[in-house]
Amino acid sequence: MILALIGVTGLVGKEMLKILEEKNLPISEIIPVASEKSIGKKINYKNKKYSVVAIEIALNQKPNYVLFSAGSDLSLNWGPRFAEIGSTVIDNSSAWRMDNSKKLVIPEINAHVLSEKDKIIANPNCSTIQMLMVIAPIHREYKIKRIIVSTYQSVTGTGQKAINQLENESIGKRGEMIYPHPIFQNTLPQCDSFDQDGYTKEELKLVKETCKILDTNEIGISATAVRVPVIGGHSESVNLELKRPFEINDIKKILNNTPGVIVQDDPKNNSYPMPITVKGKDDVYVGRIRRDFSNENSLNLWVVADNLRKGAATNTVQILEYLLRKEKIY
């Protein structure tokens, strides 16, 4: 199986490469692709060196699968061209997520919607993935009426330049600012650009992608996305209003039995999920599970995950794993 990885030198691309190696997928040849400035650079995969090539070279080699993590413009331009030659594209950008003709997939939740006809598959936004990993099993049992979510998102979600800004500011060094304000010792209530109603694109992704993945328009969703000076993971405060009465112990039992979710909820011993402890892990962690006494059938959750792993690279590779298993080659 020949696989092309578009955006191999970026933060998510590097994680994808690492996860592909960890999972030991049946890849006979890997084609690393990056921007012009990276062409010719060497990358290591399974103790073998590969040269980074231009995307045109990858297209000519007709890979079986293509993982995209290089921005929506590139995905929109090149994704269909790979699909036309028979490659299956799994795209980590926002390019295809809300396209009605493309599937938006979290394997543990809705991989069953995929068919052989799906040649371009969209990977959800990182914040959406970790929230839905926790709330989807609750929704199946109790049906969610309303979600209020506030995110506290790592600078890694913006990319290497954001990490550089934070590190420069932490030592008092002047450098390029990718954010409109300092991020060190600060929080920015802005992830991506604002629309005319005052919501950011990141907040709207949480709303629209949740409805698409859960296949419903009956859930009310209100989101606020905040950038925080953290390297290593996104955190979310999630308030759910359910349609049916529940017991907290039953919620915990559901989550304890959900693959890919780890319950860490022992407040008496100060045990709860934190970005510093989930970094480098593929599971989504949930804690601070408690009833919201201000509203009937409501509860609060604290959800944390490594946004570069399950929030991006791991989910993409898991989609690939699912497809390979369907083809019975893995």
Task: Characterize the structure shown.
The protein has 330 residues and is α/β, with parallel strands linked by helices. It has two domains: 2-124 and 312-326, Rossmann fold, CATH 3.40.50; 127-307, Dihydrodipicolinate Reductase, domain 2 (2-Layer Sandwich), CATH 3.30.360. The protein is built from ten helices and 14 strands. It has helices at residues 11-23, 55-60, 72-84, 107-110, 126-142, 160-170, 201-214, 248-256, 275-278, 309-326, and strands at 2-6, 29-33, 42-45, 48-51, 65-68, 88-91, 103-104, 120-122, 144-153, 220-227, 234-242, 261-263, 284-291, 298-305. The protein has a six-stranded parallel beta sheet, with helices on both faces. The protein has a six-stranded mixed beta sheet with strand order 10-9-11-14-13-12. Strands 3-4 form a two-stranded antiparallel sheet. Strand 7, helix 4 (107-110) and strand 8 form a beta-alpha-beta unit. The longest helix is centred in the last third of the chain and has 18 residues, at 309-326. The chain starts with a strand and ends with a helix. The model has no long low-confidence stretch (mean pLDDT 97).
